[in-house]
């Protein structure tokens, strides 16, 4: 397997820029997430921002035929929800907005959960645990660590909470293309021999279900739902492996490095 890594500071600067822009879309859209707005409208607001303010392009639009600019996955939708003017948000919904953009030949990819009003206790716990599992994986990243350790940490933490990890989708290398090697699994396997190296850039994006792990794809060919209709959550960051740890390329202003790396004490 050929895994790219970056040593040229100019390339790394471009990766940082596109990562920051991706994160800024999630920050910008926050105030529009209200009962009554449609996911189609949220998509258009994001796309206008990406094009007109960021002078970038959505990487999702047209990707393998995907028809919209961001993925919006509500409640039991696990991922790849297609924004629609008919899908209006209701009080208590939880949703993931997944933003992937390209600028100057480099890609960034990130997602987070949003609440419409106040979520119920289970929904809130599901989102919190999913985000923490991502942070736990981020905490152990440094050169020399095996990639499979990330999946191990995520799975152990999530399953201890009696939630389940979706197996069908994984994180991925990213940089000059949207999806590249390696695959970043969110559960343990015995066949992942990749050792992390400084300069590697990849995403981690655990999808966690409140019920069973099984999912199915709807007739539209994209929308993935939990089979048992339980809620699902996902958080995604793009990270760069550094000499002594990692840099979160898609860090948002509501996230602080010291709080994220404090999750080390849970390990
Ligand atoms: N952003 C997704 C990921 O994290 C991929 C979405 S592909 C799309 O890898 F076509 F559905 F947008
Ligand atoms: Co991704
Ligand atoms: Co994504």
Question: What's the helix count?
Answer: 5
> Tally of extended strands?
15
- As a percent range, the share of helical residues equals 25-40%
The distinct ligands, each listed once, are: 2-amino-4-trifluoromethylsulfanyl-butyric acid, cobalt (II) ion
Q: Output mean pLDDT.
A: 97
Largest sheet: 4 strands, antiparallel
| Basic shape | globular
Question: Strand portion, in percent?
Answer: 15-25%
Rounded Rg: 17 Å
What is the compact description of this entry?
With 267 residues, this protein is α+β, with helices and mostly antiparallel strands. 27% of the residues lie in helices and 24% in strands. The chain contains 5 helices and 15 strands.
Secondary structure topology:
Blueprint: H1 9-29, H2 39-53, E1 57-58, E2 71-74, E3 77-79, E4 94-103, E5 106-115, H3 121-139, H4 148-160, E6 164-165, E7 171-173, E8 180-184, E9 201-204, E10 207-209, E11 215-217, E12 224-226, E13 232-234, E14 237-241, E15 246-248, H5 257-261
Antiparallel strand pairs: 1-4, 2-4, 3-12, 4-5, 6-10, 7-8, 9-14, 10-13, 11-12, 14-15
Helix pairs in contact: 1-2, 3-4
Explain what this protein looks like in three dimensions.
The chain is of the alpha+beta class. The longest helix has 21 residues, at 9-29. The two termini are 30 Å apart. Helices cover 27% and strands 24% of the residues. A hairpin with a 2-residue loop joins strand 4 (94-103) and strand 5. Helix 1 (9-29) runs antiparallel to helix 2 (39-53) and helix 3 packs antiparallel against helix 4 (148-160). The protein has helices at 9-29, 39-53, 121-139, 148-160, 257-261; strands at 57-58, 71-74, 77-79, 94-103, 106-115, 164-165, 171-173, 180-184, 201-204, 207-209, 215-217, 224-226, 232-234, 237-241, 246-248. The strands form five sheets. Strands 1, 2, 4 and 5 form a four-stranded antiparallel sheet that branches. A three-stranded antiparallel sheet has the order 3-12-11, with no helix packed on it. The protein has a three-stranded antiparallel sheet with strand order 6-10-13, covered by helices on one side. Residues 60, 63-64, 66, 71, 80, 98, 100, 109, 205, 236 line the site of 2-amino-4-trifluoromethylsulfanyl-butyric acid. Residues 98, 100, 109, 111, 205, 236 line the site of one cobalt (II) ion.
């Amino acid at each position: 397997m050929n895994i790219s890594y970056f040593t040229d500071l100019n390339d790394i600067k471009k990766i940082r820029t596109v990562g920051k822009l991706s994160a800024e879309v999630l920050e910008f859209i926050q105030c529009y997430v209200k009962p009554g707005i449609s996911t189609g409208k949220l998509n258009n607001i994001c796309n206008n921002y990406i094009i007109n303010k960021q002078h970038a392009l959505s990487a999702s639009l047209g990707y393998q035929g995907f028809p919209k600019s961001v993925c919006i996955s509500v409640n039991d939708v696990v991922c790849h929800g297609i924004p629609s003017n008919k899908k209006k948000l209701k009080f208590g919904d939880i949703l993931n907005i997944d933003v992937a953009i390209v600028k100057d030949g480099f890609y960034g990819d990130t997602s987070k959960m949003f609440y419409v009003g106040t979520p119920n206790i289970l929904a809130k716990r599901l989102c919190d645990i999913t985000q923490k599992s991502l942070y736990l994986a981020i905490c152990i990243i440094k050169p020399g660590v095996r990639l499979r350790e990330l999946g191990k940490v995520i799975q152990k933490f999530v399953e201890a909470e009696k939630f389940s990890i979706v197996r069908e989708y994984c994180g991925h290398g990213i940089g000059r293309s949207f999806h590249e090697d390696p695959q970043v699994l969110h559960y343990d396997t015995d066949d992942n021999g990749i050792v992390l190296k400084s300069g590697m850039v990849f995403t981690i994006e655990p999808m966690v279900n409140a019920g069973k792990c099984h999912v199915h794809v709807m007739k539209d060919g994209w929308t993935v739902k939990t089979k048992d209709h339980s809620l699902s959550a996902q958080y995604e960051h793009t990270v760069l492996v550094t000499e002594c740890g990692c840099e979160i390329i898609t860090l948002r202003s509501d996230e602080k490095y010291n709080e994220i790396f404090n999750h080390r004490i849970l390990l």
